[in-house]
Amino acid sequence: MRAESQGLVFGPVRSGRLGASLGLDLLGAKICTFDCLYCEAGATRALTAARRPYVPAARLLGELAAWLFEPHPPFEVVTLGGMGEPTLNTDMGQIIEGVRELCPGTPVAVLTNSSLMADPDVRRDLCLADMVLPSMDSLMPSEFLQVNRPLPGASLMDIRRGLLTFRRQFAGKLFLEVLLLAGMNDSSENLARLEAFTAELAPDRVDVTTMSRPGAYPQALPASPATLARFREALCGEARPLAAGPEKSAQFAPPLDNEGSRRLEALGMRVLDSLARRPQTASSLASALGAGEADLANLLDDLSARGLVKAVTLGGETFFSRVGR
Ligand code: SF4
Prior knowledge:
Keywords: 4Fe-4S, Iron, Iron-sulfur, Metal-binding, S-adenosyl-L-methionine. By secondary structure, the protein is α/β, with parallel strands linked by helices. The protein has two domains: 9-248, Alpha-Beta Barrel (TIM Barrel), CATH 3.20.20; 254-322, Winged helix-like DNA-binding domain superfamily/Winged helix DNA-binding domain (Arc Repressor Mutant, subunit A), CATH 1.10.10.10. The protein has ten helices and twelve strands. The two termini are 28 Å apart. Residues 32, 34-36, 39, 41, 44, 84-85, 113 line the site of iron/sulfur cluster (SF4).
């Protein structure tokens, strides 16, 4: 049983916000309108607002069809995201419609940094989804620039207006995410602005999170539990499950047989591919790849010794990432 593809289809991963989520990468590379300090996919290589079919619908849907054809773990939602901002892909609407045909009855979610919400074409395509998870980390212009590092000329005002317009157009579920960094966007001024904004936006849910994996830049540090509690109390209303912990992959796949060196080598390639997407702990990697933890530990030691992987500690946990990602 295959638990993770090496291409544009990845997971399923156990997401605190969505459940067992099968991911689709609409960019195929780190292409984004932002270069967030905390980005777990590494620094943005192509900072752009140019919308293009970066991954054409036919290619992505073909990969998904092939993935579905083989035995695979169950999943609860298909999530459009990837290594950058998925709304940059002009084929997004076609992709959502194609996923509906291939996975009837499974909800489709889209992750977005909200930067293109002012574009009516983007809003029209997003309206095809069942769930949209936009992020808004700060309504203070200085904090927005510092944390999200947008393209020059990006307008917080346009993003704010675009989100409010989208809320009126969209019949699905809107889950707003606010990610806090220590000393960066955890100010009282930001909290007051976010409080007023969420009252106006009326999302179905607000998720206040912080980094749970090493980010793209070393100055990004997780917000404290007290800060998270303060923001959650003001923005989230009633108590709800938090999404700040490391994601855990769905544990449906049996352990691989790692006896043969060829299989081990193949597993090594999958580990490198997975770590190129985001840093992960040994146990989350083992779970995602359906591999035994002892095998993974040995493999990670070997890859570290060869300079292909590096270990970083965050919040008492050791994360591995691909060198040069
Ligand atoms: S966190 Fe999201 S919005 Fe920020 S740089 Fe990474 S992919 Fe882009």
